[in-house]
Amino acid sequence: PDLAGKVDQIFQFDINGVGSWHVDLTVGEGSVSTGPHDNPDCTITCSEAAFEQILDEPGSAMVLMTKGELTVSNLTAALSLQKIF
């Protein structure tokens, strides 16, 4: 499937105590690379536990944001991830 056509964004994930990686959904099926990206459209920062919770329950992201356990640099871009989950 053409994930890039649905999202067309680059996401950087900074997981506290674990590391960083970025997901490029601007071309074809997208790609995942370790380390930060030079110019991500959206940076998402959280703990490992919060990230696992989001993977298990995507709807929990808003609750985690209100608790300060998840930060998102571009909420509009982050919401576009719903198109692929």
UniProtKB/TrEMBL annotation:
SCP2 domain: residues covered: 5-84
Gene3D superfamilies in the cross-refs: SCP2 sterol-binding domain
Pfam (any one): SCP2
InterPro entries: SCP2_sterol-bd_dom, SCP2_sterol-bd_dom_sf
Full protein name: SCP2 domain-containing protein
Source lineage: unclassified sequences, metagenomes, ecological metagenomes
